[in-house]
Queue: 2 jobs
Job 1
Amino acid sequence: MIKLENVTKEYPGSTVALRDASADIDKGEFVFLVGPSGSGKSTFLRLLNKQEDPDEGRIFVAGKDIGQLSSWKVPMLRRNIGCVFQDFKLLPNRTVSENVSFALEVIGRPRHVIKNQVPAICDLVGLGDKVDKYPEQLSGGEQQRVSIARAFVNRPLILLADEPTGNLDPQTAIGIMRLLDRINKTGTTVVMATHDRGIVDTMRRRVIELSEANIVRDQARGVYE
Amino acid sequence: MALRVDYIAKETANNLVRNPSLTIATVLTVAVSLALLGAALVIQRGVDGLNTRFKDDVEFIVWLSPEATEEQRQSVDGALADSPQVRDHRFVNTEETYAEFEEFWKDSPEVLEAVSPEQLPTSYRVVPEIPDLAVVQSLGQEFEGLPGVRNVDYAGEYIKRLNDFTRVASNIMLGAALASAAASALLMYNSIRTALFARRREIEVMRLVGATNTFIRVPFMLEGMVQGVVGAAISTLAVFGLNRVIRNLLDQTSFRLFDSFALDSAQLFPVAMTLLGAGAIIGFVGSGIAVTRYLDA
């Protein structure tokens, strides 16, 4: 599903963010990216949906070399990749269901599809009774559920999560991880960057550890360290 | 696709009301600059109309003295016929002169009553080979000295002076219009940039979920074009108003020379279309540059 071949990414004027990274992630896998801040986790994720382009190496998503993708096809790639962030990135002037349907509206999905899918996904993430609330009326965990609903409503092949539990207390974080696990069980490949030792050690999934821009460990059923 | 249309309409409308002061400033700047352009166009059309009216008319008139004899008239006629610089000449008798006189003073019956056809002089209307003012004047002087000739009038001279003056005036207005059109395009650019900044969160999310560039751009481009066209509509109303004022002024005088400066609706239509088109272009260019610079970066 995802394949990196000797990928190097350097930001102009600063240090190397990712050096000669190779990895192969299968469909349906759940992968933790761990490592300290600045080790290249976010760059790893940003390369996968072409928010960044590598300086060297090749990246394949669903069998396609995304370096060869012309710019007008990038939106089609992103429709297959959901994104969840530490800061949720919700739109404050829209309700829960409007935030979720926004993701479908702007890719031109027909109205009846939106009408069917939005309530269903809100139920799935456990917010069926809060669809008319605004983000500021929700707790952090609930806001992250909205953002997961938005990322998943288009049934992407891949879900990228950049420290999704970083702003949440441990109890709430467990709820979010259960949700991501459920999504993963539907066949969606999940790649999650995290600092959360407890979560990684509890779930025992594949762990890719980054340190100073290098992949230093790639371990099935791994732990944080 | 129906959803797309109402989504775009809704987003465009939201953008327009999100920052009303900037929207109004932009619309008014467009309106002022296009009103200048419209006024310049009206004046140019007026001048064109003036020229059309006089193009086929005499370039100069040789007036005969009332007491000129028939031999004198024939020698003037002969001189005009023989001159290689005269393309055409035509004798205008007293009745014809009176008919023109009547037409010219038709709103002043007291003038008409005071004059009878016999009192009016006869004349030759002369069309020269070269319709250049200097040539026409030296040619006219040749006939001025002939016996039986009272004087020579150069109708074209006044027209040309007026023509030159109005051309300069309308060119100055055109220059001012272009400068302020540039200013309104810049303001448009800033207005759309502000709208892009206000919606940066939405734009970020749209990109992440895979909205196409076109889909992201269109509401902003439309916003610019709506502002441009609304400004143009205001300027069109201003030009129509100006035209009505000119017409009223002309109707109050009996002087028909400037009639061509009051345009009829068939002449105003292309002016209005030009202004609306220019407004749309200002909106398109200003917003297009903003969107290209801030979304494609």
Job 2
Amino acid sequence: MRLHFYPIFRREIKSYLTSPTVYIAAGLFLFMSGLLFYGILENFSLLSGDAQYRREMGFDKLNFTRHVVSNLYWVINFLLLFVVPAFTMRLLAEEKKTGTFELLVSLPFRDWDIVLGKFFAAYAVLAAILGICSYYVLVMARFGTPELPVVGIAYLGSFIVAAAYVAIGLLASSLTENQIVAAILAFVILLGLYLIGDLSTPASAGVAGVLQALSLRYHSEQFTHGLLRVQDAGYFLLVVAIALFLTCRVLELRRLRA
Amino acid sequence: MVRVENVSKYFGDIKAVDGLSFEVLEGEILGFLGPNGAGKTTAMRILTCFFPPTSGRVTVGGFDVVKDSDEVRRIIGYMPEHVPLYRDMTVQDALDFVAHAKGYRRQARKRFTEAVIEETGLGDVRKRLIGHLSKGYRQRVGLAQALIGEPKVLILDEPTVGLDPRQIAEVRRLIKNMAGRRTVILSTHILPEVQMTCSRVVIINQGKIAASGTPQKLTTQMRGGSQLVLKAVAPRGKLRELLESLAHVKKVKLREAEEVPAPSEDSETNRLCEFLVETSTLSPEVNSTIAETIVRRGWQLIELYEVGMTLEEIFLRVIASDSVEPDSSGSHLEKLSSTEGRA
């Protein structure tokens, strides 16, 4: 299959770089994650000064990885739930509202090109912002002794998780012409998938297992613990593939009914 | 260049386009005329691969719009009715994007962008954000987007809607200048626009072709004869009688309403009078017969010219006849099948 999404990718990146929404969302994300990172570190330093606590907990050394690294990336993954919809809401909703979708369709693009161009553009911007978060690693390395493989996996995990979020955000944006609706829809879908594992009741283990397997939270937490498993990475890639495929279908259907 | 064969498009049960067939030759400017909701936009969207037809076949430049839609979209330029613009881009960037989308490399993109900016007179605003431009400029950006990459076929959906008269004239001039160089399909419900810019007209109503041909041809076909304005210095009554006695003259009407003849006035006095003569033939022989008769009598012939029926009249007549008796809509017109491709 011939892919021809670079023009869309390029245009979209330019558009992101001139959009105030993006800077505000990125700023809020960095501010919140930085603040929480500070909180996590402070908490850890308090704990480490508390010998009593240490004895009660039954270990001699506080686990830096568990208390700082895992928590930090858990926080980042959680904040992404709120931030990604702000990044993805305009992707397709705006094109439809302003009619530029008709221009895109009259140019030699396939639906795939449009969807992939938009997906990669939003993902690239988000990845750049996650890249800024690399200074947390430097901070941790300077003031503690993190296990670098765990940090690496947890950090990589955030990039993988973000891809799934972006794909779902793009799907939500294809369903409506209203950006705010697109953002809320994306957030609702994401939150639903995030919390679905917590619906499980001890009553039926089978259902609980299925719900857990569907849960964004469950799979993303494996990364934060330093676990890189095929099923978790596979889960997110599958979410990306399904969401992008559905987005293509939505575009096609909307065109046929236009 | 563009061939539409028996194309229909349904949206659920609604028939938007119904058995449309026409052909546009290279370099021709085709006016696509019809009331709102006649199916013009639907037809254009099929041509631009927005959606496939329910049945029938459309080729543009030899490429099928369904099977080779990439090729088709590379050789067409489309300006939809609601001009799609990226308001957050500069004029230059937007045009570059369209060229990029059509698969051109940096150098070619630059060349095309420059050429189009020149052609549409956007030089002054090339670095401005499109969202900050006036309506007229935006319309021109829309046209520029359609023109990028020297498309062989240009499809314009109501290109002058919402412009002021000066801008309308400008856009029409731009389009008219393309005659011979590009194949243009222009949809509109503004009739003078068609008369001014198009070499051929297709009138479409309720998804079907109601009439087609050159503007002049349509005029005469609709009326089945020509209409002449005659100005002469002659005795009014006698002239009238004489005209009515000529072969092929259907109807003679006095034109100056303000000069009501006084009852005392005798029909022998020579005076300036103006008649509207309807003939039953299209041949110009009638004109010369009239002229000859007048001159032979020693009267003064001042003016004799043919007036075309305005497209407004044609349009209204076609639309009216369609709604009254849909099946015989084109009965007094040359049927499409016989005019296509030869106009």
